[in-house]
From TrEMBL:
Protein name: Kinetochore protein Spc24
A Pfam family assignment: Spc24
Source organism per UniProt: Mustela putorius furo (European domestic ferret)
Family in the record: Belongs to the SPC24 family.
Keywords, sorted A to Z: Cell cycle, Cell division, Centromere, Chromosome, Coiled coil, Kinetochore, Mitosis, Nucleus
InterPro entries attached to this UniProt entry: Ndc80_Spc24
Function: Acts as a component of the essential kinetochore-associated NDC80 complex, which is required for chromosome segregation and spindle checkpoint activity. Required for kinetochore integrity and the organization of stable microtubule binding sites in the outer plate of the kinetochore. The NDC80 complex synergistically enhances the affinity of the SKA1 complex for microtubules and may allow the NDC80 complex to track depolymerizing microtubules.
Keyword Cell division: yes
Length: 196
C-alpha cells in the first residue's frame, strides 16, 4: 500500500536527518509530510471501514434474501405436498364415484328390464281383463241400482261399511265380517232391497 511506503520513506528521512544533523527546515518539511501521510492513512482507514460496513450490510441483505428464499422454497414444498395429497384424495374419490356410477348404471339397466317386464305383464293383464272388466262394472252398477248401497271401500279389513239409500232415509251400514257369517251379511244386505 502506498501510504505505508510513504510512511517508511518519512521514517527513513527522519533517521537520516537525525544521523546527519541537518537543518531544522528539512526536519519541519519531513514532519509536515509525516502529518500528511498520517492524515491519508486515517482517511484510507475510514474509507476501508466504511466499505467494510457496506460489504457487511450487503452480506447481511444477501443472507436475509437467501433465508427468505429458503423459507419460500420450504413453504412451496409444503404446499406442493398438500396439493399432491389433495390430488390423491380427489383421485380416490373419483374412483369411488366411477364405481358408484357403474353400479347405479347396472341397477338402472336392471330396473329398465323390470319395467319392460312389468309393461309386458300389464299389457297381458289388460288383454285378459278387457272382456271381463266391462261385465264386472255392469254387474256392480246393476247391483248398486238395485241395492241402493254406496260402499266405503276404504274401511279396514274385515269390516263391511257403506250407506244404504233407502226409500225414506239414508241408513249407515257397519258389519263386522269376523263376527258375522257371509250368509248372514248377504241375507241382511238383500233384505234392505225394496222388491216392491
Amino acid at each position: 500500500m502506498a501510504a505505508f511506503r510513504d510512511m517508511e520513506e518519512v521514517s527513513q528521512g527522519l533517521l537520516s536527518l537525525l544521523g546527519a544533523n541537518r537543518a531544522e527546515a528539512q526536519q519541519r518539511r519531513l514532519l509536515g509530510r509525516h502529518e500528511q501521510v498520517v492524515e491519508r492513512l486515517l482517511e484510507t482507514q475510514d474509507n476501508a471501514e466504511q466499505r467494510l460496513r457496506e460489504i457487511l450490510a450487503m452480506e447481511e441483505e444477501v443472507a436475509q434474501s437467501l433465508l427468505d428464499a429458503k423459507e419460500r422454497a420450504h413453504q412451496g414444498g409444503v404446499e406442493l405436498q398438500q396439493l399432491q395429497e389433495e390430488l390423491q384424495k380427489a383421485g380416490e374419490e373419483d374412483a369411488c364415484v366411477k364405481a358408484s356410477l357403474h353400479q347405479l348404471t347396472r341397477e338402472l339397466e336392471e330396473l329398465k328390464e323390470i319395467e319392460a317386464g312389468l309393461e309386458r305383464q300389464e299389457r297381458e293383464v289388460d288383454e285378459d281383463t278387457t272382456v271381463t272388466i266391462p261385465s264386472a262394472v255392469y254387474v256392480a252398477q246393476l247391483y248398486h241400482r238395485i241395492s241402493k248401497i254406496e260402499w266405503d271401500y276404504e274401511s279396514e279389513a274385515g269390516m263391511v261399511k257403506g250407506i244404504h239409500h233407502g226409500p225414506s232415509v239414508a241408513q249407515p251400514l257397519h258389519l263386522d265380517s269376523t263376527q258375522l257369517s257371509k250368509k248372514f251379511i248377504s241375507d241382511y244386505l238383500w233384505s234392505l232391497v225394496d222388491t216392491d
